[in-house]
């Protein structure tokens, strides 16, 4: 089966780890020129421009011209579909975290009891 184009939807666009890195740079909500993203990610300018282009086509980033520069900004609202989808699985890791917390609390209580009972024996 042929793979879906990276510009068909947000899921395909963010499947590429370097595009997620670009999103990470833009996550501060400010506008960034391509050169800033290049420096922060230590990536070649053509690669950054290509990734920004894909993210722009699916609406995850917006671009405006300021003089000679194109300024990119994250449009986080377009990531909501990803958030909503992932959220359906949240109960799985929340359950695991609750179990880890309970075990840690039990171990801490056992250590405390051990310390207290060890001091009484002395």
Q: Please, how many helices?
A: 6
Structural class: mainly alpha
Q: What percentage of amino acids are in beta strands? A: 5-15%
Mean pLDDT: 89
What is the CATH superfamily label of the largest domain? Winged helix-like DNA-binding domain superfamily/Winged helix DNA-binding domain
Number of domains: 2
Strand order, sheet with most strands = 1-3-2
Question: Main sheet, how many strands, which sense, barrel?
Answer: 3 strands, antiparallel
CATH C-level of the largest domain: Mainly Alpha
CATH architecture of the largest domain: Orthogonal Bundle
What best-fitting shape do the alpha-carbon axes yield?
elongated
Distance between the termini: 72 Å
- Please compute the radius of gyration using only Cα atoms: 23 Å
> How helix-rich are the residues, as a percent range?
55-70%
CATH topology (level 3) name of the largest domain: Arc Repressor Mutant, subunit A
Number of E-type strands: 3
Overview of the molecule:
The longest helix has 32 residues, at 90-121. The model has no long low-confidence stretch (mean pLDDT 89). Helix 3 (34-41) crosses helix 4. The chain has a three-stranded antiparallel sheet. It folds into two domains: 10-80, Arc Repressor Mutant, subunit A; 89-121. The protein is mainly alpha-helical. The chain contains six helices and three strands. 14% of the residues are buried. It is 62% helix and 11% strand.
């Amino acid at each position: 089966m042929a793979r879906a184009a990276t510009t068909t939807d947000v899921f395909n666009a963010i499947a590429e780890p370097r595009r997620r890195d670009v999103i990470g740079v833009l996550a501060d909500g400010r506008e960034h020129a391509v050169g800033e993203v290049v420096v922060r990610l230590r990536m070649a300018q053509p690669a950054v421009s290509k990734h920004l282009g894909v993210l722009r086509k699916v609406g995850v980033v917006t671009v405006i011209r300021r003089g000679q520069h194109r300024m990119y900004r994250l449009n986080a609202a377009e990531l909501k579909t990803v958030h909503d989808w992932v959220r359906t699985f949240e109960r799985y890791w929340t359950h695991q975290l609750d179990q880890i917390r309970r075990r840690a609390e039990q171990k801490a209580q056992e250590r405390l009891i051990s310390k207290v009972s060890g001091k009484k024996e002395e």
